[in-house]
Amino acid sequence: MIQNIVFDMGHVLIYFQPQVLIERLGITGGDKELLLREVFRDVEWIQLDRGSLPEEEAVRILCGRLPKRLHGAVEELVCGWWKRPLVPVEGMEELVAQLKGAGYGIYLLSNASRQLHRYFDRIPGSQYFDGRIVSADWQLLKPQKEIYEKLYEVYGLKPEECFFIDDQPVNVEGAYRTGMAGTVFDGDLERLRKRLCQVLGVKFCGDRSNEEDR
Questions:
Q1: Are 113 and 145 in contact (CB under 8 A)?
Q2: What is the reported pLDDT for 209?
Q3: Would the N or C end of the chain have less CB density within 10 A of its end CB?
Q4: Is pTM beyond 0.90 here?
């Protein structure tokens, strides 16, 4: 029986949109495309999420291959994007609150840099979470099996009692390989609710749990 719901963060709880982050700095056109490619689509961003590259070193490396006019933007994007307003996924805070109210344990499993700890309390619904595993803290990344196993170990969870929600199919498949079922969230909150009704049944959605079969 499912006792715990495990959430990804980006594009599940909040939107992470590099294009928007860059545009907020007043940068468009060719410079925007340059920052997208060099900052967000190269290996350094993954290394930040893995916790294998310090922020200061990432800034140094990225500035070394970008024109000086973009150096301030690089530092802002790497070290300070989270200080700006976070964009919540509509309806997700209410869903988390409902799950918590139904008695489920609520956990976060996210590929993110250590900065997540600085802004986690600003994520809508964060007050309902019982724990979080951030990839950079453990130098692991989804879909490595070890990061799911770390979640179970740290919080004393059984994989068969957990259900995982992530926007990346490969990460959900990784959860299945460790014994934790899950579903892919594609932005359709109603579809997610129906899936949870199927999995959790009456405890979560009462008599509506069988609506799909009617």
A1: no
A2: 46
A3: C
A4: yes
First-to-last alpha carbon distance for the chain, in angstroms, is: 24
CA distance 156 to 172: 20
- ∠ CA 46-87-133, rounded to 5°: 45
Whether 112 and 9 have beta carbons less than 8 Å apart is answered as: yes
How far is Cα 209 from Cα 194, in angstroms, rounded to an integer? Answer: 8
Ramachandran assignment for 55, one of left (phi > 0), alpha (psi -120 to 50 degrees), beta (any other): alpha
Dist. CA 33–CA 29, nearest whole Å: 7
| Cα-based distances in Å from 211 to 12, 75, 102, 147, 195 | 24, 50, 19, 35, 11
Place of tokens 């009617």: 214
Strand 14-15 to strand 131-134: parallel, antiparallel, or no bridges (unpaired)? unpaired
Residue 55 has a CB neighbour count (10 Å cut-off) of 16
Residues in the chain, pLDDT under 70: 207-214
d(CA 13, CA 34): 28
